[in-house]
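Please fill in the sequence for the structure shown.

STRUCTURE ENCODING:
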């Protein structure tokens, strides 16, 4: 299977996203309405949720909605308030043993369901580079303060009232500069599903935050995460994704004093972290390495291939990727 990864520059929220939205909207619309139109919140509720929990992001949402053509249904979808369930499998870890600090992560998903966009933006006085989901949500990314974020599914089937986590990470990168500020957001803005968020800032402060609609937010002094929260309660998913084995591997490598930063990054392109069983609907779509500095650098890696960008030197472009199956 082939996918084209696009690096897109959007100086303003209403610019640069219309083409991507037109390309992705038919499939997103089918996904959003799969349970019937009445299962999704009405526009007034979506707006009220943004106003209550992330008011600083409300004008950005309004400009993006206008920029893609407006409309009730796109506006509801783009709010990411009470969306349909979605889950991924990921491995992520922050390297803080010595400077330069960085966060490296694998994003595991099905290629056909991947948005495949790396977006540069400057919407609220802070430059951001992020891999996107739902047009403007964030799977992983960094800003010009050196804050880095990455999400992984928490391995629990609970679905509740809250936002899709990618828009919460967008809010964090738009308005936060430190791990502590990001933690405060994750404590106050509800997530509709269980996720693990690994954070790293320019000072080397790395933490993993476990969020979910049915539990208090848990902040752990851990620089790594896979796809469970405590003891797995969805055993079939835990086995199929080998989340415990991947987590133990990350902890072992981070705790090994002989491990170098270069070797640690290389391991994300190897088993058990790298997954290539696309025939089962699951595989590593990219490895992202984010440096925690004001330079805001990101290198996307695949076996034998990579793409590098900096916040101050971002050029639009495309790369063709081929996945087995």
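FILLED IN BY: designer on duty
SEQUENCE:
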């Amino acid at each position: 299977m082939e996918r084209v990864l696009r690096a897109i520059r959007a100086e303003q929220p209403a610019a640069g996203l219309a083409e991507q939205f037109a390309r992705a909207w038919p499939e997103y619309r089918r996904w959003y309405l799969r349970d019937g139109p009445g299962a999704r919140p009405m526009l007034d509720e979506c707006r009220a949720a943004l106003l209550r929990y992330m008011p600083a992001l409300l004008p950005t949402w309004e400009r993006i909605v206008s920029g893609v053509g407006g409309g009730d249904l796109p506006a509801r979808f783009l709010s990411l308030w009470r969306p349909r369930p979605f889950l991924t499998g990921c491995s992520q870890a922050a390297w803080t043993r010595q400077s330069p600090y960085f966060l490296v992560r694998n994003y595991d998903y099905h290629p056909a369901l991947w948005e495949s966009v790396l977006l540069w933006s400057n919407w609220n006085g802070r430059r951001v580079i992020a891999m996107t989901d739902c047009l403007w949500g964030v799977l992983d990314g960094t800003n010009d303060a050196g804050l880095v974020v990455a999400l992984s599914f928490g391995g629990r089937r609970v679905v509740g009232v809250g936002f899709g986590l990618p828009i919460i990470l967008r809010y964090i990168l738009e308005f936060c500069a430190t791990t502590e500020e990001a933690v405060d957001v994750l404590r106050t803005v509800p997530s509709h599903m269980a996720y693990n968020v690994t954070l790293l800032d320019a000072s080397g402060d790395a933490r993993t935050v476990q969020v979910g609609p049915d539990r208090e937010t848990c902040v752990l002094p851990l620089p790594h995460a896979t796809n469970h929260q405590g003891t797995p309660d969805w055993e079939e998913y835990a086995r199929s994704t080998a989340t415990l084995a991947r987590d133990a591997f990350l902890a072992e490598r981070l705790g090994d004093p002989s491990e170098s930063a270069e070797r640690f990054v290389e391991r994300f392109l190897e088993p058990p972290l790298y997954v290539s069983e696309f025939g089962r609907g699951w595989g590593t779509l990219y490895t992202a390495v984010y440096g925690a500095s004001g330079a805001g650098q990101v290198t996307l890696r695949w076996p034998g291939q990579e793409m590098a960008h900096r916040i101050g030197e971002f050029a639009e472009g495309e790369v063709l990727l081929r996945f087995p199956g």
